[in-house]
Amino acid sequence: MSGPTTWRLPETARGWVTDGGLETDLIFHRGLDLPDFASFPLMDDPVGLGVLDDYYRGYAEVAAREGTGLLLETPTWRANADWGARLGYGADALHRVNRDAVTHLRGLADEVPDGVEQVLVVGVVGPRGDGYLAGDLDAERYADYHRPQVAAFAEAGADLATAYTLTTVAEAVGVVRAGQAVGIPVAVSYTVETDGRLPDGTPLGDAIEQLDAATDGGAAHVLVNCAHPDHVSPGLSTAAPWTERIAGIEVNSSRLTHAELDEAEELDEGDLPDLTRRTRELAESLPSVRIVGGCCGTDVRHIAAFWDGWSPVVARGH
């Protein structure tokens, strides 16, 4: 295993736009059927691939309009062994689709409108289990499990891998170690419950500090995703040094709990003006946030509203 990564998110004048809730947008707004909430099979469907391209181009337009950087993130949150097997994808097929996702987004990156400061292609990793339930505590088992996916991203030339909606420190450590083993930087995004703690009860600050201690600071940066700003705030101590590790937030539109979202049959798109205000306040309260995007229930309208004439970097004066 190699040592800690020295990769850090490049500086841009206004920060980084990323996308919204891919799967909820595809299901509720675009009428697609996504078994097991998996969007990666669309890579093998010409019609589905066209829908994905349209989705990503909307965020490129936001980044161009606001003069920001753009993170193009692969639709591979479910493209790991356990979920892939449920959908008929074995190891070779998963390797191919993870590589293809990076290659395809690299092509889209070459077509972004003028005004986008910089583009990074990000390979997206999802949790081994359910995104809302805490998993086991064996970091090395997680490293072995996630290594094939991050290796595919590395082979395809992704700039970065980001593991989203993680519920335990152990899985976060495992993904970072997998990235270290194959030579690709890995960022970690935790999800939190309404009290600002991880689903297993770990305070967010402890989860960040434990991750850094176990990987010698190996994570490229940390994000928080799949939670309303009101759910993230209780877990923060803005004067604590660990807040400097949080480079991004990707918020839910809804104040519903994860359990309630699991049962919801209609999409809660939230109160957009209120969500915009609270998302901006949260981003401005954290010293290092440069990435702002969305998660469940959000789409390009939300991201455009968050960024309309605003930047977390500019708002903080750095």
From TrEMBL:
<dbReference type="GO" id="GO:0008168">
    <property type="term" value="F:methyltransferase activity"/>
</dbReference>
<feature type="domain" description="Hcy-binding">
    <location>
        <begin position="4"/>
        <end position="310"/>
    </location>
</feature>
<dbReference type="Pfam" id="PF02574">
    <property type="entry name" value="S-methyl_trans"/>
</dbReference>
<dbReference type="GO" id="GO:0046872">
    <property type="term" value="F:metal ion binding"/>
</dbReference>
<keyword id="KW-0808">Transferase</keyword>
<dbReference type="InterPro" id="IPR003726">
    <property type="entry name" value="HCY_dom"/>
</dbReference>
<dbReference type="GO" id="GO:0032259">
    <property type="term" value="P:methylation"/>
</dbReference>
<keyword id="KW-0489">Methyltransferase</keyword>
<keyword id="KW-0479">Metal-binding</keyword>
<dbReference type="InterPro" id="IPR036589">
    <property type="entry name" value="HCY_dom_sf"/>
</dbReference>
<protein>
    <submittedName>
        <fullName>Homocysteine S-methyltransferase</fullName>
    </submittedName>
</protein>
<feature type="binding site">
    <location>
        <position position="296"/>
    </location>
    <ligand>
        <name>Zn(2+)</name>
    </ligand>
</feature>
<feature type="binding site">
    <location>
        <position position="295"/>
    </location>
    <ligand>
        <name>Zn(2+)</name>
    </ligand>
</feature>
<feature type="binding site">
    <location>
        <position position="226"/>
    </location>
    <ligand>
        <name>Zn(2+)</name>
    </ligand>
</feature>
<keyword id="KW-0862">Zinc</keyword>
